Amino acid sequence: MFLRSSFLLALFATIALAGCGGGKSPESMIPSKFKTSGNDEVKKLNTRIITRSSTDFSVSDYRIGPGDLIEVKVYEAQDLSTVARVNSRGTVTYPLLGEVELGSLTVQEAEQKLRDLLAAKYVKDPHVSVFIREYRSKNVAVVGAVNKPGNYELLNQGRLLDALALAGGLTENAGKVVYVTKYGTGEQVAIDLDELLMDGNTGLNIPVSMGDTVFVPEAGVFYVNGAVKRPGEYRIRDQVTVSKAIGMAGGLVTGAKSSEVKLIRFGKNGEREMVSVDLKAIERGEQEDIALQDQDVVFVDQNAIIAFFQTLRLGFFFPPFSLSGSAPQ
Fold first, then answer.
1. For the segment 135-146, what is each residue's pLDDT rounded down to a tens digit?
2. What is the pLDDT of residues 33-56, one digit of tens each?
């Protein structure tokens, strides 16, 4: 991180000199500790993760499966009441009936099936109730930008938000796209948390299965420096363009050269590419508003003369004075 910061400092200085910029040096405009933006957004997402994860599970929708421990009560014939574990084939051994397949049925469907089987031979108009005493669980890994990464046990009907809630929600550096890798097939599903949690597309709260991996990558970062009001490091949580990045940094200061914005991008091997951007041309639709990538740098040059007199006006170089030589009243 020290090497990266030192390199950026030197880079900003080089750009400023090349553009004949004045006023504050790029070094003085770089905060000693970058601040990450977007914490409020993550808090909102975490609140919705917690509240919506607990409401997604419904016993009435739960489907019986291998490993579940069920209790059956027949009120007209107590000797037919039993407790049984669903085996790997989805069946249970039941008095008089032998093996009965209940796998993939809801509780209500299982009650109706047992009621019909008993009524056919053994009990007239039986009243049957089925209770799930133990739900089978599945192990799911939640890794990346979550507060408590690790392996978690979920109920059979566990979904993405349940896994994220168990992992303590997102960290402040988390991105807004979550990747679920399915066990066995290796299929990867990308889920946009904004669309799921903010837009209410509940269909994206997909089920997670035994052995699945939920990965939350950190949001990429970009840097804005030069003639902007809040220079520093920012997170890429949505698509961020050059003009949007400058807006996130508080906009331009007096004397900023809106037609001489530099976008610096680093290649995989450390090579540097620089593109000149004209904000007014973007407004006119004459130039593309380029989307930023991780580690991009946006530098806004400043008019040297305006910056110099702005500095004088603020009294950075000389104390206030008047033409008469007397101190202002």
1. 876 789 999 999
2. 223 334 677 888 888 888 888 544
Interatomic CA distance for residues 109 and 62, integer angstroms: 11
Q: Which domains does the chain have, with CATH numbers?
A: 2-30+220-313 (3.10.560.10), 42-55+136-216 (3.10.560.10), 69-134 (3.30.1950.10)
In the prediction, which pLDDT does 261 show? 93
> Between vectors from CA 105 to CA 103 and to CA 111, what angle results, nearest 5°?
110
250/252 Cα distance (integer angstroms): 7
Q: Rounded to an integer, what distance in angstroms lies between the CA atom of residue 308 and that of residue 329?
A: 25
Q: Which two tokens stand for residue 273?
A: 């590419």
CB-side exposure of 181: number of CA atoms within 13 Å? Answer: 9
Give the three-state DSSP class for 282.
Answer: helix
Cα 228 versus chain centre, distance? 28
Residues, the chain: 329
The residue type found at 142 is: V
Number of alpha carbons in the 13 Å side-chain half-sphere of residue 199: 11
Position 321 scores a pLDDT of 40
Class of residue 220 by CB neighbours under 10 A (exposed 0-12, middle 13-18, buried 19+): middle
